[in-house]
Amino acid sequence: MSDIVSIKGLKYGLQLTFAKGASFDDVQANLLDKLQSGNSFFIRGTTVFVPKGHFAEEQNETLRKMFHRHGMLFSTELKRPNLAPPSRDSAKSPSQKFKESVEEAQKMMVINHTIRGGQEIKANCSVLICGNVNPGAQVIAGGSIDIRGTCRGFVHAGAFGDKTACVVADRLMPAQIRIADIIARAPDEPEKVNQAERAMIRDNQIIFEPVAR
Amino acid sequence: MSQIIVITSGKGGVGKTTTTANIGVGLAMRGNKVALIDTDTGLRNLDLLLGLENRILYDLVDVTSGRVQYKKALVRHKKYENLYLLPTSQIKDKSAVNPDQLVKLCEEMKKEFDFIIIDCPAGIEQGFKTAIAAADTAIVVTMPEISAVRDADKIIGELGRADKENIKLIVNRIRPQMVEKGDMLDMGDIDEILSIVCIGQIPDDEKVVVATNRGEPAITMSDSTAGQAYKNIVARLCGENVPFLKPQKEGFFARLKKLFGLL
């Protein structure tokens, strides 16, 4: 199974070569497996090269989408990718992009410790933090953020523009909170919070409301 | 079983060196064989606090570079015979000692001493990384002040990243009156943010300044509240269960005196 696809590091990205006789479905399944295993080869923003003419055009398109979903560029030509206009913008309709971002946001990253000052968590998906987010710490998520503890740091949910994202914490008192492109900051007079709250967008403003846990 | 303890804080001026000197003397008073290592190369102070500056012959840089045996560089305390100081160089800078050298040195010293206490420089750069490399216990010193607590939080994160699991907290220079008025962070606030085991709460005490200038740590003064707090910390380090000092409120007569003093 693991020999179906072999990966070779190049200056500008990763070159994929496929075993002789491997079917497209096998290749696709294998690549998806590798992508989801959190393999450190597949760093976001890396370009993946597939030899031109190996697969049919529509099959290439399927792979392109799969890599895009994992934040990578796809190319059939061995050259430095033109980074200025990301190809995916032209290739997909906005509704399609939104659908993908929602799918992404439905995944979740679990962090089982306190995020201390100076530390940063970044995820394309939603984030669950079992611990506190201390002052000076940052959490940036494509989806929503759930904090089982006190949030005093900087949180940004829906970082790709998802206005339905929310931030929940047992005690929500962030220094600054962003949801999609809307920013709110803590009041200058700090207030004590004793109940779990959820922050979300309503009428283009970030509002806090109590939630039961 | 000997212990290697690093005393660190991130922020400068919160009392790392004072704490190192006091804990060192306290442990030695209990009969332990203690070595204090100053790693604040270029800005050494620990020798001053112990009143040992004029006895220094060699320093940490001489030892780690292999010029002399560490035993030659150790300075024995004039009063407590089982307390030794390994001072650092005042001329070189932090790049003169690297983490591996300190680990090797501590491994060697471990055979001789019950406690090795490392005084860490402020900051999170090279000097900090060197100082924590050998330690199995870290004591983070902070003050009830947001910048100090913020830096302590960062330092705890860094210690976690360096796989130090045994991290303890000392809160220094607490002013009970200010805490009571709500002008200073109280222990609850600090505990909540840092969430690590606290082994000491030291009141702000003018006698510490006197002690520093005299080169005799406050722990040796019987009338110092900070000294008493340090004694309790030493007891807790030795595994005893000592309750925290009650914050001393200004008594009625003291207030009356002050009032008349003002008039």
Backbone CA Rg of chain A: 20 Å
Structural class of chain B: alpha/beta
Identify the CATH architecture of chain B: 3-Layer(aba) Sandwich
Q: Distance N terminus to C terminus of chain B? A: 58 Å
Unreliable residue stretches of chain A: 81-89
Query: Which two chains touch over the largest interface?
Result: A-B, 12 and 12 residues
Evaluate the radius of gyration of chain B.
18 Å
Count of beta strands of chain A = 15
> What is the residue-averaged pLDDT of chain B?
92
Tell me what portion of residues of chain B adopts beta-strand conformation: 15-25%
Written overview of the protein:
The complex is a heterodimer of chains A (213) and B (263). Chain A is of the alpha/beta class and 213 residues long. Chain A has helices spanning 24-36, 57-69, 87-91, 94-106; strands spanning 5-9, 13-18, 47-49, 73-75, 108-111, 120-123, 126-129, 138-141, 145-151, 154-157, 167-172, 176-179, 182-185, 197-202, 205-210. The model of chain A is unreliable at 81-89 (pLDDT under 50). Chain B is built from twelve helices and eight strands.
Comma- or semicolon-separated keywords:
heterodimer, A: 213 residues, 2 domains, six-stranded mixed sheet, five-stranded mixed sheet, 4 helices, 21% helix, elongated, B: 263 residues, alpha/beta, Rossmann fold, eight-stranded mixed sheet, 42% helix, globular
Present the secondary structure layout.
The complex is a heterodimer of chains A (213) and B (263).
Chain A: E1 5-9, E2 13-18, H1 24-36, E3 47-49, H2 57-69, E4 73-75, H3 87-91, H4 94-106, E5 108-111, E6 120-123, E7 126-129, E8 138-141, E9 145-151, E10 154-157, E11 167-172, E12 176-179, E13 182-185, E14 197-202, E15 205-210
Parallel strand pairs in A: 2-3, 3-4, 5-7, 6-8, 7-9, 8-10, 9-11, 10-12
Antiparallel strand pairs in A: 1-2, 11-14, 12-13, 14-15
Chain B: E1 3-8, H1 16-29, E2 34-38, H2 46-49, H3 60-64, H4 70-73, E3 75-76, E4 83-86, H5 99-110, E5 115-119, H6 126-133, E6 137-142, H7 146-161, E7 166-174, H8 176-181, H9 187-194, E8 197-203, H10 206-214, H11 225-237, H12 252-262
Parallel strand pairs in B: 1-5, 1-6, 2-4, 2-5, 6-7, 7-8
Antiparallel strand pairs in B: 3-4
